[in-house]
Design brief:
The complex is a heterodimer of chains A (about 300) and B (about 575). By secondary structure, chain A is mostly helical. Chain A contains 13 helices and no strands. In chain A, about 75% of the residues lie in helices and about 0% in strands. The longest helix of chain A has about 35 residues. The model of chain A has no long low-confidence stretch (mean pLDDT about 80). Chain B has 21 helices and 20 strands. In chain B, a hairpin with a 2-residue loop joins strand 1 and strand 2. Classes of the chains: A mainly alpha (about 300), B alpha/beta (about 575).
């Protein structure tokens, strides 16, 4: 088991180099000059531009730039962004906010998705099931920005149940609205996945055997249907965690959450290679580790899966 | 009311039936209205008695039994009649009452040991929750005791293992342990051993019989095997298409079957048949002319030439044993035999004996570690890819599972035509003609061409698989458990068909099976395999009449119903 974990952690190295190289190249290949773009309509003197170029190594060829980036990374010196702020410090500010947002969204989608999915699956073909299925389809069909603005207006402004925007001081309480919006889309998938899995397992032979043993219905549901049904759901949740961390650009903008999505978006617009790659590097780590956790959880849920050499 | 109270009150009145099913009707709701699955079923089980319900799949035997424990699937319901347990009608009892009864009063041993244990819980836990739900002591010692009583060796350690770490036989023992753990008064055993090897089957049934007679448990045994039913039960109830067609004491019913269906069942029960199918040879020339396709050459079996020679065949698999080490496991160990053209050779053995591995090597799907397979004078290991392609045309397989071996997305025409297309034989029109002929040969209507596998029954699918195997006019057909998944009557039909095709087309069969009863019906020669080794070989009659090895004797002895005496005209 430990061997397996170590091997998986070692796999991070090639994945990490590959993704950062790719992202660095894509930012490098973006059209336009980032330094000139920085100044907009009033270009500075050529000397200033050249000096800035040199400062950010933009005058070097691609491989040198990437090499310098890697070197800085391994010496824990991420450098400064185009506004002169240390990248490490801004990562330290934005990541806790996004992690909070992602975890809150994950909890919302898991708790509600699994609960509703389980009930719908057990009552397959009944009114509740049909309602929930249609509702989830509607949620999947509505784009996040529509859902976000509607909930912001309805719950945040008109009803005043939650703060409509987050601002600088993000905490669990005022992140509830963006977390709900973020969780809603995955919630619909978790629900449908749980429902399908429950429906499948409900008719399994061992469930009938469990009933024949004289177990009460709740016991059969919890120990024999729910646990077996969680296996595909867990896989999806693990994969969605990565999406929640990195893909919250729209939600973070609507609710003014100072998180990874906003920062990443700004950095891409400005062609700020080092910042983009630094953020992506952390996201790659999150992805890989989340997937490792899913695989371990998988083995715990299903003893038939054992990781050996 | 506890179980022991019931026992005492019951002791005085042993002539009251424990379970009585009266005029039971069960219907299922389907897309096109209600379908009656069971009509006017009636049966009576006295305390301590074993009653068997016999019938083919779809006869309603399992449905009747499931109704007795209140486990009909969601769309099924009891639409008439009564199920009396100790005089109490439980056919419409509340779920609460049924939960009280299940486990304690009515236990169940289900059919398939592979799918009836939850794969994510330890065996011990699955026993423990049964004991706990029925208010019995459920400590580790109690769990181990229950498992040990069901004949599971080293029960305490075994309780900590998961189902996938158990063999089929051990899983079935665990399920029997669960079914009997709360000492129910009635045990419903639904095909408890049909998924197991014959020798294991025998051990398990013996043990079940011993346990239930010690506990005084009544047993409702569901089976498709008349021989097994007659051997194990006091009374047999025969069901056909939802009706009870005949019932009575086992031996009487077997020796003097009244209903035509029972007569057919007795006649085709493989475990009771005693000689090779002669159908083919009795067919004569007329049928040959009627049925044989124009261009098919009727090969006269010469019976002398060895079409297949297996010489010192060995296959070693490396088993991982952790930390990068591996141990060698000889799945097939020094096996030699030969197959004469136009004959049938059966390889018999239990699961794990290596018989299927031999088949795969003969089909050239698996490389032998050492040894030779000589087909028509050529060592198959020396063939290049082009020659292997040609070889495949001459040697075709029929596999066990007719559900898994046909592509569900291909219609029957495409399924049978595919080998012809792959081998670029004929044009579109001639291929279609060939498919029609093949369907005729396997006695399927030509209209089957446009249908899909899921619209066909198991027997029809296996006929399609045979047609597909015949498409390339092969010389040798490897049948890997080709009839094991079929009901007895269907099995008999398919075996007849195979025998008929053999005499007509001069085919050579290599028949892989665990079922000695099937061997007796189809094979000329038998090779008995045990743990990778060939332990006995000889002509079918020699092996059956005078087995030399203990293992062969054990296998023969384990055929259910083998000890029953039957009048010759029935057998």
């Amino acid at each position: 088991m430990i061997q397996y974990i170590l091997r998986r952690l070692l796999q991070i190295i090639p994945v990490f180099i590959g993704t950062t190289l790719l992202v660095y190249f894509m930012v490098f290949a973006l059209p336009g000059d980032p330094i000139r773009a920085l100044f907009g309509d009033r270009p500075p003197s050529e000397a200033v531009i050249a000096q800035l170029r040199q400062q950010y190594n933009l005058d070097q060829p691609f491989w040198v730039q990437y090499g310098l980036f890697l070197k800085n990374l391994f010496t824990f010196n991420l450098g400064v962004d185009f506004t002169g702020q240390p990248i490490a410090a801004s990562l330290g500010r934005i990541f806790p906010v996004t992690v909070m947002l992602a975890v809150e969204a994950l909890i919302i989608q898991t708790v509600f998705g699994v609960t509703f999915g389980l009930i719908a699956g057990l009552r397959k073909g009944k009114f509740f099931d049909a309602t929930v299925l249609v509702a989830s389809l509607v949620v999947i069909a509505i784009p996040t920005f529509v859902l976000g603005f509607v909930l912001q207006l309805l719950i945040g402004v008109q009803l005043g149940w939650a703060k409509p925007t987050v601002g600088a001081n993000a905490d669990w309480g005022n992140l509830i609205l963006p977390a709900t919006v973020l969780g809603l889309v995955s919630f619909a998938y978790v629900l449908r996945l749980t429902r399908a899995s429950v429906v499948e397992n409900m008719n399994a032979d061992y469930v009938r055997t469990a009933t024949a043993k004289g177990l009460s219905r709740p016991r059969v549901v919890v120990t024999h249907i729910l646990r077996n049904s969680m296996i595909p759901v867990i896989t999806y949740l693990g994969a969605s965690l990565g999406g929640l961390m990195g893909g919250a650009i729209v939600t973070e903008s609507i609710f003014n959450v100072p998180g990874v999505g906003q920062k990443l978006f700004q950095a891409v617009i400005r062609s700020e290679g080092p910042t983009v790659v630094a953020i992506v590097s952390v996201l790659v780590l999150v992805f890989v580790i989340a997937n490792l956790l899913v695989d371990l959880l998988y083995a715990w849920l299903d003893p038939r899966i054992r990781y050996e050499n | 009311m506890t179980t022991s109270d019931v026992r005492i009150s019951e002791a005085g009145q042993a002539d009251t039936p424990l379970l009585e099913i009266r005029d039971l009707a069960i219907s299922f709701k389907t897309g096109s209205g209600e379908v009656q699955a069971v009509r006017n079923a009636h049966l009576t089980i006295m305390p301590g008695e074993t009653v068997a319900i016999v019938g083919e799949s779809g006869s309603g035997k399992s449905t009747t039994a499931l109704a007795a424990i209140g486990l009909l699937p969601g769309n099924g319901r009891v639409s008439g009649g009564q199920i009396l347990l100790d005089g109490e009608d439980i056919s419409h009892a509340s779920e609460k009452r049924m939960i009280e009864l299940r486990g304690n009063t009515i236990g169940m041993v289900p059919q398939d040991p592979m799918s009836n244990l939850n794969p994510v819980w330890k065996i011990g836990y699955q026993v423990k929750e049964t004991l706990r739900a029925n208010g019995r002591p459920s400590g580790p010692a109690d769990v181990a005791k229950v498992l040990a009583e069901a004949g599971l060796p080293d029960a305490e350690r075994r309780a900590k293992q998961y189902p996938h770490e158990f063999s089929g036989g051990m899983r079935q023992r665990a399920l029997i342990a669960i079914g009997l753990s709360c000492q129910p008064r009635l045990l419903i055993a639904d095909e408890p051993t049909s998924a197991l090897d014959v020798t294991v089957q025998r051990q398990i049934l013996d043990h079940l019989e011993k346990m239930t007679s010690e506990l005084g448990t009544s047993v409702l045994l569901i089976t498709h095997d008349l021989g097994l039913a007659a051997e194990r039960a006091d009374k047999v109830v025969v069901m056909y298409r939802g009706n009870v067609v005949e019932a009575g004491p086992s031996l009487e019913l077997l020796q003097n079957p009244q209903h035509p269906y029972t007569q057919r069942l007795v006649a085709s029960a493989p475990s009771l048949a005693s000689r090779r199918i002669q159908v083919a040879k009795e067919l004569g020339v007329e049928t040959d002319e009627l049925l044989a396709p124009a261009e098919a050459v009727v090969v006269e079996p010469t019976m002398t030439e060895d079409v297949l020679q297996i010489q010192n065949l060995r296959k070693v698999f490396k088993l991982r044993s952790g930390f990068g080490k591996s141990t060698d496991f000889a799945a097939v160990d020094d096996v030699s035999f030969s197959v004469k053209r136009g004959t049938t050779t059966a390889i018999v053995g239990e699961s794990g004996s290596g018989k299927s591995t031999v088949a795969q090597m003969v089909l050239n799907l698996l490389q032998p570690t050492s040894g030779k397979i000589v087909f028509d004078g050529v060592d198959t290991s020396t063939l290049n890819s082009k020659q292997i392609f040609a070889f495949r045309r001459r040697v075709q397989p029929i596999f066990q599972d007719p559900y898994g071996s046909l592509d569900p997305m291909y219609n029957i025409f495409r399924t049978i035509e595919e080998p012809l297309r792959t081998h670029k034989i004929g044009d579109k029109a001639s291929r279609e003609k060939k498919v029609r002929e093949l369907l005729d040969q396997v006695a399927l209507p030509q209209s089957t061409m446009q249908r899909y596998p899921n619209e066909l029954s198991g027997g029809q699918r296996q006929r399609v698989a045979i047609a597909r195997a015949l498409a390339l006019d092969p010389e040798v057909i490897i049948c890997d458990e080709a009839v094991s998944a079929l009901d007895v009557l269907v099995q008999a039909q398919v075996l007849n068909l195979l025998a008929e095709l053999q005499s007509r087309l001069g085919l050579t069969y290599l028949f892989i099976t665990h079922d000695l009863a099937v061997v007796r019906q189809i094979a000329d020669h038998v090779c008995v395999m045990e743990k990778g080794k060939l332990v006995e070989t000889g002509s079918t009659d020699d092996v059956f009449d005078a087995p030399q090895q203990d293992y062969t004797k054990a296998l023969l002895h384990a055929i259910p119903g083998a000890r029953l005496m039957l009048p010759p005209e029935v057998a």
